[in-house]
Write a structure and sequence with these properties.
The protein has 325 residues and is an alpha/beta fold. Helix content is 27%, strand content 25%. The longest helix is centred in the first third of the chain and has 17 residues.
Amino acid sequence: MSEIFMLIEHRQDAIRDISYEMMTCGRALAEKLNTKLTAVFLGYDADKLVESIRDQAHRIMVVNNEVFKEFNAESYQIALAEIIKKENPLLTLIGHTAFGMDLCPALGTQLGIPFTTDCLDVEIIDGKLIATRQMYDGKLNAKIRFRKNPSYLVSLRTGCFPVRDSNIESEIVNIESPISAEPDYRKFVEYIEAAISDVDITKADVVVGVGRGIKKKENLALIEDFASTIGGVVACSRPIVDAEWLPKDRQVGSSGKTVKPKLYIALGISGAFQHVVGMKNSGTIIAINKDQNAPIFNEADYGIVDDLFRVLPTFKNSIIEMKSK
């Protein structure tokens, strides 16, 4: 078959955002190749979750077994290997998340098929896979061309595909589980949730992100005041967390949280890809940085090349003036 397959990622009775992004990507590929998208759902008593994605793929292949109630890379690998060997899809998409980083390389190695991870984009031209991924710490995007093969496996980086609506009438196909118990050598134990903070940056409509450009911890008071004035919350890049200026739950990026506010203001953030991946799908992005060559300006809708401490007072006063009107 020449279908596009993708793995639905879910956790604690919720479909994760990366699944919708991959289904958007998969539908686009399927349309170009005049084929269909199949979403593979491994879970247990999750009819509501399956129903919630019924319009997102041409076919939803459901494996309903208690062994898949929680994610276990070994159980998923055993099941997916059997499904892929039987169905022989042209391409299988997996999210480049904590789940996918554990699962994808081992699955590709077991199946002996070409695979690559952490991709920004994928194309299939004349039956050959062309994947786009970053190199040299995000300074370069490279297109990787694979030799023609009957099947490929790719993990996609989160935040690379904006979610688009779909109205497909899916075919639901229930199949028997290839396994009935978790492997003895690796079992799911429990989820341990991080402590809940008083600020949830993922729910805010306005996020003010800060990086090393704020110079010192004492300047956070100015940033907090600015964010409060415009009805926003303060987030940050990894160096700020490493310096212990803000807690881990304020970090945006590949090793932090993904935010999609209506407005994201980046203050003194250079724009390394590890940070950008966590905020690139914001509604409007404003960047303020003294370095006119900072990568953050490639993502920004509006950019200001100046000292942020010169700009912020004027910015704040303008907002107060607009609110007063």
